[in-house]
Amino acid sequence: MQLHGQNIIAGQSQAGAGSTFNGLNPATSAVLEPAYQEASTEQINAAVEAAAAAFDAYRHKSADERAAFLERIADEILALGDELLQRAHAETALPLEARLMGERGRTMGQLKQFAALVREGSWVEARIDLAQPERAPLPKPDIRRMLIPMGPVAVFAASNFPLAFSVAGGDAASALAAGCPVVLKAHPAHPGTSEIVARAIATAAEATGMPAGVFSLVHGTSHEVGSTLVKHPLIKAVGFTGSLRGGRALFDAAAARPEPIPVYAEMGSINPVFILPGALRERSAALAEGMKNSVTQGVGQFCTCPGLAVGLSDESFTNFSDKLNELMADAPTATMLYPAIAKSFSDGVRKLAHLEGVKTTQAKQTAEFGKTHASPTVFTTDAATFNAHHELSEEVFGPATVVVACDDRAQLESIARNLEGHLTATIHGTPEDLKEYVTLVEILATKAGRLIFNGYPTGVEVCPSMQHGGPYPATTDVRTTSVGTAAIARFARPVAYQGFPQAALPVELRNENARGVWRLVDGAMSQANCGE
Ligand code: NAP
Questions:
Q1: Residue 394 φ/ψ, nearest 5 degrees
Q2: 22: which strand partners?
Q3: Given a cut of 90, is residue 16 above it in pLDDT?
């Protein structure tokens, strides 16, 4: 495929007149062709207007039609073959087989899970309260409620998942599944991958009879592109994965609009790991190995990377800490996604390394600047130092973690109590540890969206029960998830119909349950018909 470097507005590539930028191979510093054009304000407006124009036609497509569109996107992505993977590899340095093939499978799997969800139909959460005209003292009206799509959605692709959280990733797939057209802001670190996938989506839209405005792609390296998109009055919701600074800026911009809209931003998290005494006595070396693997997986470029390990200062914890230091020192340096992310990592490491009372161990292998290398790093300290320096509890995005030794259980629990919101919190322990540390589990449930027992936070399963979210600053909306089929709820809103005749109701709310969806009828779940 000859890449054109243009924005794709409602299925059409459009040349722009503005400035351009190029992708870069972070492993070699080679500039990648072609140059990509920053979207102009006119192009962003055209993309949003096309999305708004497509909204009525798209939301009225049947569930089967919408599901077929999602499945066709997955098929078109697979049909791209090696070209997609090679470009993603060149732009991100993520390993082809060990990572990008799996990520492509995950991307397709997500699209197919959402297609199945849409076909099954119960996601609309239909609730029906039948009328009781004879009720005294007042008759009860007929009320029926379900979720409907919100309207055009702006999605920001993530740098760290060029496929699964980018152009056809979880945010775009869940918005499209809900019935919302998408205008996607490509991540400037992988513009070629973005163009290839966007063209596959445009092909799928045409092949399945979707309105062209259902999907557009805009490029940009300046914040202007993203903020213009978020401020556009026809955009009704935003999906974002990235930095706390970026997510917060977009959240604030959306809240300051004359019509505020929801921003579902998934941002920073250090994913604390609490290692309890019984587990340490049983397997301190294995825990150090597991922690090192999780911290360095994907060069630490996962929002679930465990950036904090806490335990009681005893011999077993010292063994754990010593072993982790040794393993991190021996870990290889590796290429990060793009130079700015590597710089942000090395700045973060430098900041923590200067703190008094913090021991820093870095990988022995020399990091090469031209290869965008990061050195795996572990910081070791005590609870008093940790509590005195807030920076130690802030995300350093990359292969780094902080190990904190506590004097006693009260100090360990106070660290947990002082945590901000995180995507995950992990406990390693024995059944006896769990009984003794029941308060810790309760505290952590108030701090994180997903609690993990005797596992590691990296490797997020895509499934209906997954919760990938958490209290601020992990996300801007603690009630939602950005992974798994429950993510669809972010782009839908409830509407109740009171006293409507059958023919004027959406099919999911009629007495005859033609689609057989699960509904709450007069307080009980049912797939049956209802009423008379
Ligand atoms: P980012 O800087 O937040 O950028 C993500 C996207 O948002 C880009 O398209 C960016 O476009 C846009 N953007 C950022 N700030 C904006 C603003 N103020 N107004 C409008 N648009 C804005 O994230 P990143 O490039 O992926 O990585 C930078 C840092 O984010 C990392 O070092 C890491 O700390 C964090 N990160 C976290 C996660 C996570 O899952 N928690 C994932 C990836 C990265 P422009 O750059 O063109 O403005």
A1: -100, 150
A2: 35
A3: no
Which residues on neighbouring strands pair with residue 23, listed in sequence order?
A: 32
Tokens matching residue 502: 């059958």
**pTM listed for this prediction:** 0.97
- CB-defined site of ligand 1, < 6 Å: 156, 158-160, 185, 187-188, 220-223, 226-227, 241-243, 246, 249-250, 266-269, 303, 341, 344, 395, 397
- H or E stretch at 111: helix 101-120
Quick one: DSSP state of residue 393? G
Helices (H), 297-408: 315-330, 339-353, 383-388
What DSSP element (H or E) covers 153? strand 153-156
Residue 406 bears catalytic tag? no
Active-site hit among 71, 76, 180, 303: 303
SS3 88: helix
Span 82-99, pLDDT tens digits: 999 999 999 999 999 999
Rounded to 5 degrees, what angle do the CA atoms 463, 100, 199 make?
90
Q: What angle do CA 477, 478, 479 make, to 5 degrees?
A: 90
pLDDT 10s digits, 372-394: 999 999 999 999 999 999 999 99
* Distance from C-alpha of 189 to C-alpha of 344, rounded to nearest angstrom: 15
What is the C-alpha separation between 441 and 145, in angstroms, rounded? 36
Question: What is the tally of helices (H) and strands (E) in the chain?
Answer: 15, 23
- Rounded to an integer, what distance in angstroms lies between the CA atom of residue 234 and that of residue 52? 7
Active site residue 530: no
Q: How many CA atoms lie within 13 A of 370 on its CB side?
A: 3
Please write down the HEC assignment for all residues of 169-236: CHHHHHHHHHCCCEEEECCCCCHHHHHHHHHHHHHHHHHCCCCHHHEEEECCCCHHHHHHHHHCCCCC
